[in-house]
Amino acid sequence: MAFYCCARLSNKSVMGTLTKFNTVIRTAQYAQSAAVPKITFKQYEEPKVEPYDDKNARLQRPMSPHLTIYKPQLTSLLSVTHRAAGMLLSGYITALGVGALVLPHDVAHYVTMIEGLNLSPATIFLAKAMLAAPFGYHFANGMRHLYWDTAKGLTIKEVYSTGYAMLAGAVAITIFLAAL
Amino acid sequence: MAFSMFLRAPACTSKLFSQQIMRIATQQAMKPVAAERMLSSVLPTQHTILKSNSPPILNAVRSFRTSPALLQEEKAHDHSKLWVIEKLTSAVLVPLIPICLILPNKMFDAALAILVTAHSFWGLEAIAVDYVRSSIFGPFIPKLAIALVYIISIATLGGLFYLISNDVGLSNAIKQLWSVKSKQVA
């Protein structure tokens, strides 16, 4: 076994050294074992990590322009409008819900109050159109989103064509609802 | 000593071999049945082992991550099932809103209230998560934003249920508010 070890340490083939037994001992390469360093273990310490933004703030690096240089495109414009319309609709439904809880009177009272303003039909149509616009847009674009979720219509050509079709649909829904 | 010399043979010092041995030695301490199943599938699951929280079998030599990207990652959470539910809610709302407005009744009103509030909650949550980030606003404000989204959604749902039970109902309220009469031209 010791012989095998010596041969392995000298990186010579074991069988080949059988014939060169004398040379193995004479080259004294077994002394390598004394040069193997002692292995020690240290307590593991998590490497300290600095978040990207903190490091950049510390080094006072300026931020590259991003939103200011973004080319206005139909894709990004429609997407951000979808989100804005959604926020407005959330506002509507929260106003309805929280209003029902905190306002002193019931729905009929407030209907009468608005009718008391004696608005012209044109004003009412315009007001309804402005209220219905976020709904019409979000509804139409929402269907476009669901179409994308079936993994269809994802090429840039189709995104643009469905985008324009959606805008037409949104306008149609808005006018229809305002006319009700 | 023979074993230690064997370990110095090229086959045992190769990177692949030592990686496998490290993986087996530093995986979590488990019940024997689970450990057997784990051993057979040791190969591609490096990521989950690195993220595990229970103590490894060997503490003297542990695998640890040093890449800043991996270190900064938060706990993994699988959004896939929730995403399906969100999309189903959106899909159901497409026919439900017209039907509910055409045929007002308490059942449809309740379903509409729940689905619209859920849809609104998920949307507002996405906005809060996207824009109110801790790298800009610090550690506290993002949590406050999410809490506000919860409070608003719960209040909205409560108010809509009040509207359904104690007032004219959700669809009727919308229809009545929509049909305000204009000034009649004399």
Automatic annotation (TrEMBL), chain A:
Protein source organism: Leptosia nina
Keyword Nucleotidyltransferase: no
Source lineage: Eukaryota, Metazoa, Ecdysozoa, Arthropoda, Hexapoda
GO cellular component labels: membrane; mitochondrion
Protein localization: Membrane
GO BP: mitochondrial electron transport, succinate to ubiquinone; tricarboxylic acid cycle
Xref: Pfam families: Sdh_cyt
Protein name: Succinate dehydrogenase cytochrome b560 subunit, mitochondrial
PROSITE patterns referenced in this protein's UniProt entry, alphabetically: SDH_CYT_2
TrEMBL record, chain B:
Residues that bind heme b: 119
This protein's GO CC annotations: mitochondrial inner membrane
Transmembrane segments: 144-164
Residues where a ubiquinone binds: 131
Protein keywords: Electron transport, Heme, Iron, Membrane, Metal-binding, Mitochondrion, Mitochondrion inner membrane, Transit peptide, Transmembrane, Transmembrane helix, Transport, Tricarboxylic acid cycle
Family to which this protein belongs: Belongs to the CybS family.
The protein, known as: Succinate dehydrogenase [ubiquinone] cytochrome b small subunit
Species this chain originates from: Leptosia nina
